[in-house]
Structures
1.
Amino acid sequence: MTDLRNLYQEVILEHNKKPRNFGPLEEFTHEAHGYNPLCGDDYHIYMVVEDDVVKKVTFDGTGCAISKAAASMMTTKIKGKSVEEAEQYIAEFRAMMADELDDDGQEHLGHLKVFAGVAQLPNRIKCAVLPWHTLNAAIHGNDGTSTEGEADEWDG
Amino acid sequence: MTDLRNLYQEVILEHNKKPRNFGPLEEFTHEAHGYNPLCGDDYHIYMVVEDDVVKKVTFDGTGCAISKAAASMMTTKIKGKSVEEAEQYIAEFRAMMADELDDDGQEHLGHLKVFAGVAQLPNRIKCAVLPWHTLNAAIHGNDGTSTEGEADEWDG
Amino acid sequence: MSAQSLETPAKIDWDAIRRDFPILDQEVHGKPLAYLDNAASSQMPQQVIDRIVEYQTTFHSNIHRGVHALSQKATDAFEETRSLVRQFLNAREDAECIFTRGATEGINAVMHGYGRKFLKAGDEVVITHMEHHSNIVPWQMLRDEKGIVLKVVPMTDDGRLDLEAFQEAITDKTKFVSCIHVSNALGTINPIKEIAAMAHAVGAPILMDGCQAAPHLTLDVQDLDADFYVASAHKMCASTGVGIFYGKREMLEKMDPFLGGGDMILSVSFDETVYNVIPHKFEAGTPPIMPVIALGAAIKYLTAIGRDNIARREDELLAYAMEKLDTIDAFKLYGPRDTKTSVISFGIGDVHPHDIGTILDTAGVAVRAGHHCTQPLMKRLGIPATARASIAFYNNTDDIDALVGAINDVTEIFGA
Amino acid sequence: MSAQSLETPAKIDWDAIRRDFPILDQEVHGKPLAYLDNAASSQMPQQVIDRIVEYQTTFHSNIHRGVHALSQKATDAFEETRSLVRQFLNAREDAECIFTRGATEGINAVMHGYGRKFLKAGDEVVITHMEHHSNIVPWQMLRDEKGIVLKVVPMTDDGRLDLEAFQEAITDKTKFVSCIHVSNALGTINPIKEIAAMAHAVGAPILMDGCQAAPHLTLDVQDLDADFYVASAHKMCASTGVGIFYGKREMLEKMDPFLGGGDMILSVSFDETVYNVIPHKFEAGTPPIMPVIALGAAIKYLTAIGRDNIARREDELLAYAMEKLDTIDAFKLYGPRDTKTSVISFGIGDVHPHDIGTILDTAGVAVRAGHHCTQPLMKRLGIPATARASIAFYNNTDDIDALVGAINDVTEIFGA
Ligand SMILES: Cc1ncc(COP(=O)(O)O)c(C=O)c1O
Ligand SMILES: Cc1ncc(COP(=O)(O)O)c(C=O)c1O
């Protein structure tokens, strides 16, 4: 059970239960759909970007506790940040999942570090990464994304 | 080489070199085509049957020494015999290949016993049996036959 | 072989049988492995592994076209398996038993070889809401190509086929029925013999997907009157890479092959090619010789234990598990409670099955979490996925206890 | 692993390598086995057998959809093999490397998925007189269905493709070229890169049948500019039941899958089904997981020895054999004498190859006798069949001497 407590930390369970920034936006500048066919995690990310700043960001959909908490905490993290910073978080989160994040990055990620335990469970990495993957797609204007068949890119 | 001499007996080699009753008949009452896709043995049997007696029987085609000698010796054996007797030979030859021929049958088969060695080589049984199989088809008015997929019936 | 030393069912030493499966004797995340993912793929007894090693170290060779001793021996062992499959299914003839790459290829062989040849626009193909994707997607491909109509028989809330609706769905327009024998997602055993009778009453052939039936039930394709029956070797203690595809001779003979190549022909010229007789017509190219020979060993193994005994053992373990699981408040079973195989598809409160799967894994308990290749069935139940524990005869009560314990961890962590 | 301990090519201990193959250490009809049927199917080194046993005893599980540890481990080993195949072929991406049931399925996948979708009546498909049946029959099926025109490039008397005729056969009407890289019947190595250039000059894609090339030559599908490339694991020291099917990403993406089922879809509903991305789109159902993992071990084994070293060794044994065989009056070689792999297709006087095969078998020498699934090629040479001795790197001069000795028996018995 100790391992599990490391994976399912209180903050993750709490975000899973009460996801922040949940639900679709009526008006948005960016949007993308992310789907993991392996376990059915299925999310939409909606963004309002103005002057290169993420004014609003929400997510909608269903999935496991890891993916839902990851999405919820992601939205709280990047709201109000510049697009450039959001991209830095994407890169850092991805590096953390690949067990390749340096100390500076760790520092910068802050409480997102609670997902470090997921990196030890290869078959759950895609869950934690899916919202970030989808955010990336939204920023770059791809309208859909799937974790399938892109194991190399995202599993590191 | 002793085993081989048992298989390739002089009489077989001799019939292979100088097959009897070889070549098509212009006029015939019965005919059938026999083909072994595994090794390409490919024969036609032609018969003239009158009053239930095999007046003429020839074979044509190509194949290995075993099949050619079997065909040649078969024609010399059944020529002039009644159809009923021919069918008895078919049954006996088949039994010999299945190692199930009784002493009476052995006696009756006469010099066809030179093929007994073939029964010890499962992958050559079809060669020796093909002409007999085709003869059977000719008698019963099936116009073609193939040893493939009928392993059960003929391999015993 | 321990299985062979059994005399009467009463004396079956299930502990000894479990020891035939070396893979079960290991720890995962520091806990003893409780392998309960048998519906996805079963494990292989030492007897089958030994047969594979024997094959590869003493008589591997390509088959059918060889004059040398190894080739003959390999051919004999390959064809012996065909005969064992015939007995396993109680088919009429060996030639009706074809080896494919898996059950999936068998269904596709029927879609291509029968469907594309004999069905036309407007013809109705009846399937059910309970099908595995492998028995949905091929018929959708046929729909896209030929304009056939796909009719889907509904499922009840407790995961059974609605037989009245089935009867209604079958009409004069029905030209084919394809139906799962035992549900992989829920364990439901369908009354497939009655369904076959309905199909035959309107002259429609029926394909039965027996992937989950073959490991658990004693089969008789003649009694069921199956026109086609498919199963997967890797769910029957044998190897991945080979499936069983049964068809009635008259059906197979009138069908076209959909894979062209060596061995499936009698003669080839550029003008004309003559297909071989069955079963060879459907076995293009070098077949999965080693997996087939392993399947032969597995059938011998299962038969030695006795398929009745296997079913009884699995039913007992299922009953033991259900008794314990029913005491857990948050435990929710999907599908029926009886007339089913030893498959337990479940949820825990509103915990996502994927999280259940991970927590169980940490406790050494291997289950499957997901849609089990039955997305329409999941949608029908209004859920994205389930956790599925599937029990084989080599499991034991310790495995079940580990499952129950780990489910308690789930409720504790998630406060479910 | 003996192969790994090699340092420089000069130090290769071929005797030690031969000992990696337990099957070779046996007697057949009381004579040491000389296995010279490698073009039909090669043998498996202990290292690959060990990997199979390791897989089945420690981590067998169904892949891709499992959250538990075994499933993850099996998935990793399966996908590692994909990566090894990519390196083996020098493909751009793992996703371009698909696992089929055999080379035959790969060719059929192209016929169904590309041919049936993109070719239409009157379009010309160019093949050659040297093709294996698996590269003839699928195109005949397409001809029967779609009315394409099948053009056959002739072969010269000495068993080479007539390149001028090839150039002439390729016109604006040519919409596809499918060509054997190395002849299984004769060993001829075709100038496949030049042929690809001819095809591409008119915008036609090319499929290369590399079944006999993969075990002998170092491959580079990018350099050859292959649109599709197929090979068979069981001819590469791995297991039956799996083939390699390479396709350029852009080709695979625009093709339709021809097998529907699990894993090849992203989502399924009765109205609409969305296919998965490559490679999964072409891998319907449970793949041959164990054979694939065995293939991974085989590629590691072959790579450790060094594919250049393998080719050199086989060429040397071929030269040794030819020197001896050429002294036998009745020996007649079919096919070319150079630019070939270590395949010796021959006749002895007018003795039927089937009789040659039997006599050789009695001497422990395993060769293939027959049409080698190349009936049109045989017809072109005016013969019903040949005897074929095919040499692998684990053969030795004793094997060749046994072959030569047994051929002398043939001449003696038949007075040839
Ligand atoms: C040149 C060639 N093409 C295709 C094949 C067919 O391969 P498989 O039987 O493994 O599908 C073979 C082997 O028999 C071959 O040698
Ligand atoms: C009911 C059912 N049908 C079909 C299949 C497909 O079998 P395979 O993946 O072995 O081809 C499975 C197994 O996954 C199954 O459980």
Note: The mean pLDDT of chain B is 87.
2.
Amino acid sequence: MKKPALPRQNGSAQKKSLSSLLAVVLFLVFFILALCANIIAPHDPWERFDPYLPPSVEHWLGTNDLGHDILSELIYGSRVSLLVGLGAAVLATAIGLCVGLFAGYYKGVTDEILMGITDVFLMIPRIPLIILLAAFLKPSFWIIALVIGFLWWTSTARVVRSKSLQVSEMNFVLSSKCLGFSDKHIIFTDIFPNIIQIVIPKFMLTVAAAMITEASLSFLGLGDPSMKSWGMMINFAFTKGGLINALWWWFIPPGLCIMFFVYSVVLLGYSLEEKEQAVLGIS
Amino acid sequence: MFSLSLKAENISKAYGNGRSSKKRRYVLEDISFEVQKGETLGIMGESGTGKTTLGKIVAGIEKATRGEIFFAGNSIEELSKIDYARFRKKVQIVFQNPEGSLNPKKTVEKSFQQVLELIGIPTEKRGEVLLDMLQTVGLSEDFLCRYPHQLSGGQNQKVALGRVLLLEPDFIILDEPTSALDISVQAQILHLLKEWQAQKEIGYILISHEREIISFMADRIAVLKEGRLAFTS
Amino acid sequence: MKKIARYLLALFIIISINFFIPRLMPGDPITNLMGEDYIVSQESIDALKAELGLDKPLLVQYVTYWGDVIRLDLGHSFHFHTEVSQIIASKLFWTTALVGLSILFGTLFGAILGALSGWGKNDPKNKTLTTFFLWIYCTPPFFLSLVVLYVFAFKIGIFPLRGFYETGTFTDIAKHFFLPVLVLSLSLASRNYMIMRGSIIQEKGKLYILYARAKGLLNRGILFRHAFKNASLPLITLVALDIGFIISGALFVEIVFSMNGMGTLIFDALLARDYPVLQGIFLIITIMVVVANFLADIVYGIIDPRVREQR
Amino acid sequence: MSCLHIKHLTVTFETLMGTVVAVDDVSFDHESKETLALVGETGCGKSVIASSILKLLPDNANLSGEILYGDKDLLRLSERELADIRGQEISIIFQNPTLALNPVYRIGDQISELFRVHKRASSKKSKAYATSLLGRMGFKDPEHAFHMYPSQFSEGMNQRVLIALALALHPKIIIADEPTKGLDDQLKEEILKELMKIKEEKESSLFLITHDFDAARNIADRVALMYCGQIVEIALSPDFFDEPFHPYARGLLKSLPSHDFAPIPGASPSMISPPEGCRFHPRCAERLEVCSHEMPEPIKKSGRIIRCFLYR
Amino acid sequence: GPRVGYGIAKNQNNRILRIGTSGRVRSANIFLDSYISVFAQLSNPSLMKMTPDGRIVGQIAKDIHISSDYMRWEFHIQEDLYWSDGELVTPEDVKFTIEYIRDRSPVAGWMKDTIDTVSISDEKAVILQLKRPYTRLDVEMATHRLLPKHIWQSIDTPMQYTNPGENVGCGPFFIQKIDLNRGVILFAQNPFWKGPKPKIDAIEVHIYQNIDVLSLALDKGEIDVFYNYASSYPYQNLKKIRANSRFDFIEKLSTGLIFLGLNLGKAPMSDLRFREALSFAIDYGEIIKLDSLGYGKIPNRGFLPPTIEHYKDTTPLEYNPEKAKQILDDSGYGDHNGDGIREGHDGKNLALTLLVRPVHARLAELIQDYLRSVGVKTTTKSVDTSTWINLKDRYRYDLTIARTTPWGMIMHAGWATGYFDSRRTGEGVLHNIDDPKFFKLCDDLLSTRNKEKLRDFAFQVQDYYNGQLPAIPLYWNVFVTPFHTKFQGWLTNPLYGIFNIDNFLNIEPAQK
Ligand SMILES: Nc1ncnc2c1ncn2[C@@H]1O[C@H](COP(=O)(O)OP(=O)(O)OP(=O)(O)O)[C@@H](O)[C@H]1O
Ligand SMILES: Nc1ncnc2c1ncn2[C@@H]1O[C@H](COP(=O)(O)OP(=O)(O)OP(=O)(O)O)[C@@H](O)[C@H]1O
Ligand SMILES: [Mg+2]
Ligand SMILES: [Mg+2]
């Protein structure tokens, strides 16, 4: 007589690949939106129709206070938002990662110096600095991405450092040192893979933060207000009565777009995570 | 010709809070010895006497509180960058805890490949060298794609050893190299080590608690007790 | 020792930056003091500048500034018409309450839920939770505050629309604090959730977790007794960093809920280029962040002996 | 009376290179109060058997068979039911002590935790008990040891901590995966003595996985020999060491120091595609014709269980 | 039990007027804080006031006598005015206040140069002896609050003075409390007020930092009326409150407007033809539709709206892009290199910087688009207010968007001259004209109080604007003020809207 088969713990492989497929698809959709905005958008986003129109066949998401077609704005907005979000997040994560890894690995004086710099950056009053830059720089969104990137790396650095302090004490790091691997090699191939789980969420969060910050920066006066981005759309939806008149088709879609884009990044992160969990055999 | 040697001079090591001397505990005190190429020094000692610590200090990956290590006559503290890199390649250690000394996020293959890359083996030859080494330490190809936690204790130990052997070092510090191996494999590995020593004139510092292994392998035997090293015949 | 030297140096630089950045911003406090139309002789502008100490060369001002910092004399505000220390003290009380509560709840909920979700399987329940927190995170705080206010204070009407208090009784204050604290806690929790989740995932493959299971601990027990402590390092860092951010980051929540806190103070002082107030606030924030970081460093050491040994 | 029946236990792992059959249809009984030594080649599946008993295998493992403990099938218990058994009734000493201990808790706290979780003891009481346990494990200053972290201990010291942990609650079955690895002779002796003492006192049984034949000879009642996922011989300890049946056992005995470390020729077999027929036949000096194409079944012979055509 | 909603239940008292504002009151200093001093005119009235039809008349001052050379001003003080602590209001208080302002207010620099002595005559009058003739002292005196001497004489450094508690005042109401943490300014009836009895018991000013939340509060009935100095209720929020039957609206064409400022010192803005071309490029109708949701009027080239005294009907502005292009072509701004952007006289592409504050972001977008379609490229530079003031004062812009305030329209020589006269400066003013002809006009305006002459000069100023286009008005805006119908009898004046004493003495709870 056969006993019932033991339940297998891991979910089906098919389901896993499905969610990573979804992530890739979602990500690509946004990418294509950004690339082919001029083909996909039903209208020129700067063309003015009647303002404050509710959704209709002609304007799926209605029009905004200037009479711009919101759907087209949304599609064009992906360009700036993706650029700013990803650009700033990549920059911030890269800087933060390097600083954190080096500080955690070398310890001692290097650590003190790097963390000192981090502290300074951390406490630089950001808004004044941004106002300062706004007055002297020509407004453009890649400057915004740069500014956010250069200011938002500090917490990543500190988080990475705290973890890499832990990891760099482990025997396998000693072992690599002894084999004569260069410090760079050890940092990036030994320590980094062992802290990636913290960097991934940090990166995702930075993407979202950058997209949103870009909008609040314009609130403070930095940036070109006529530039179309999701953050900007939300910003105008609020300053121009979107919420008070419950024009949800105006402020919800850009919010959703940010959310879904970040979600696609998150899903990508998760499929990485799952792949790793699968090989490590943990659930 | 000046013979290549690894020498420890007056090594002391204290653990505990740096400043308050009360809490400082000396694990090693005034230890000196010298190992020549091609020679095996066996070190025995009770658990927790500081064998591993001594090994790490000699390998240059832990700082001694006092004392110096000399490689080929030069203190390793004062080595130039190039010389240090050479020392780094030529003096290796195999850790007691084999799984801990392998990166949990790297497959066996990757662990090996990176060493091969490090020592500058051309890409096309790497596969061959790798398989050779696997065979030498008695692992099959199946293991290439495994992560350390997917290996048994002994298999981990073999990987760790194989990786070090690839470097063709002059000195290897072996910290309980066969503790996780069954006796047959242990025998294989010990023979292998002896063979390599004969071929390549490697100097071993063999740390083990097993008298038989030590006496089988070592030319000289020292016992570590209460922080001091005593040579026995 | 090294640590203290580093903090002192960082403090020196930051406090200097706090002096220079406001002054490098275009405009000065006097422009804002004037009003629509005026004719003032250079003489009276000079007199005004002298009164505010802006007539001296920047370097001299800088030296004076340091003297003031060391004496902890924050000076008086051009626009708020009181001692800077007094303004800050009065705002700090409310803001600390607001921020403190939010950090407390945000950290607790974020960390615990994040740990549970990272620990458990990636099932629909956890996915929903993650999506929820992502939503929160992707929503600008401004937006979130307004929506919450619209629904709970306007539509349902169980909470007040604005301010720290109306009558000043405990329940009154609690009612006023509920929504802003909710919003701030949620947005903090969303971030802590993500970090904790990742950190726990990193830990759960470790052998000691398996061994804890072998010891006969239950799943939750292992999570909270074993994995949690190891995984909390990054979170501690973040919480320490928060202190500074939230105080200024609370601005949007303060604006929506018409709370006259530090965020608003910074914003007003900034727009008015009120140097003493700006310097005062930045100094306070700097000190708080440094202290928080310092504490975080100590806590690291307590949590992880391997890190402590590095000292 | 037997207290652990292992019936047709098979454990496989999915890897990129194929399925690893780590344990292949293993059946044996473990009597109560008995010391059973499991010996065998590196990587033959000993630790996997140990982990399967407590169901501590990773996700990529597939289990089948039964592990009966009393009237319970351990493999089919829920996590909650298992939690009551783990540590309390069946304890395990992992092979890799340093990684098994939580780096951020003090040694002492990790031991007292057991009492707090299973016995709901007060913290003072459990501390006292933990300290005394450490003392019995050869720590000269147990108070001091209590306050140390795993990273401040040597490998051997952590090993002993793990032993202390395993003995703490006087479990019915102690599974010890190379408990004396890395310990010097004197300490080894002490620890084993301690182990046996507790075992006698509390009438526990010991499942000892070891490479140390001396230890096995000294303390084991029976010895099980494993090769490539299969148990190839089970015999009473004196019988086994005096006159091993299986050619692999004979080979092993020859690798002992007393024979100048003469290893069995040939390499360990792959566990993904093990040799046809008898798994040992490629390295066997006494192989028969059948060995290469037919797998020998375990048979009982003169009080032993043996898996070899020589004894058919 | 039943859930008691916040606000609604408590707001049953029909005799307390609750005003909602979103002004950023910074400190409890009625002398220096610019937002609180607007509200403080209720407790501390000014010597003069503006009537609903825009004339300046006495308030604390019963009547005034001005010497024919405008050098000596005699203000006769009301005799039955009492401070809320029971003290009589005396000329001493007035003298003290004027001297106090002159010596201690950073914004009253003009007084130092203008007022020679302040003295008191025995007939309860204050006499100001001036250093030079000044015709508009009465207008200035409509914006300064009277301070009680017996309180303020001990306050040497008003810059460091706040009083969150009772502020002694002599109006019908006085400030009882300024609680900025709670966000309210509470006014109670002045017990010693001898004038007509107010029909409401108290006034509360509630400060909201967000205008949308303020709108919600209004809708919900937590506040009765909206008030921001020189501002309309936000047009985009009107639709919602219009749907609330409990509210009614005051709609008035304001004396202020939104305009496009030009840096006249720089080419090509220095070229009148270019300015005219710009004026034809702008679609005023659309701006009104989009930016003011219809609450605006297409302005004339004469800048000033019809609500101003001595308004002259000048040429209305017109949207005619073809004409704009024609003018540009004719006056040497052709697109010779064919890249779609016209070149200036120096041969370089016309690329102008449009300097704006974030509030005008949307207008900037429109202007940018209009100019683009006639071949002029603009870049929007959005900065915060202080930066804007700074850059504007240093003439670091080509175009900018600004608004005027009611006070701004009458300051300096009046008729918006304060915005353009380069001899003056100030937060919101452009000071971009240094034409002697314009200076002469301003001086002429300042030289007389004769009605006929004034009208003549005012017409000339409007003709000057009409001819020279120093700035292009974008629209004249209508101020809308929603109020709860439980109060009736609202009076507004062009300077302070509903926030004036006449109004608060006049309004009363509606009869059911
Ligand atoms: N980081 C540390 N802090 C404090 N004490 C330490 C630290 N590392 C090691 N020790 C102590 O140093 C001593 C020697 O440790 P070591 O690992 O060298 O011993 P060992 O001889 O290798 O022992 P074993 O045979 O058990 O591996 C031990 O008593 C240990 O407690
Ligand atoms: N998670 C896993 N995934 C894949 N293969 C695994 C996994 N865990 C163990 N194995 C394989 O299963 C086999 C048995 O491993 P096990 O750890 O039981 O060996 P062992 O007999 O304990 O050896 P040692 O004496 O070296 O510890 C080994 O070949 C190992 O490579
Ligand atoms: Mg050791
Ligand atoms: Mg094992």
Note: Chain A has one domain: 21-38+67-280.
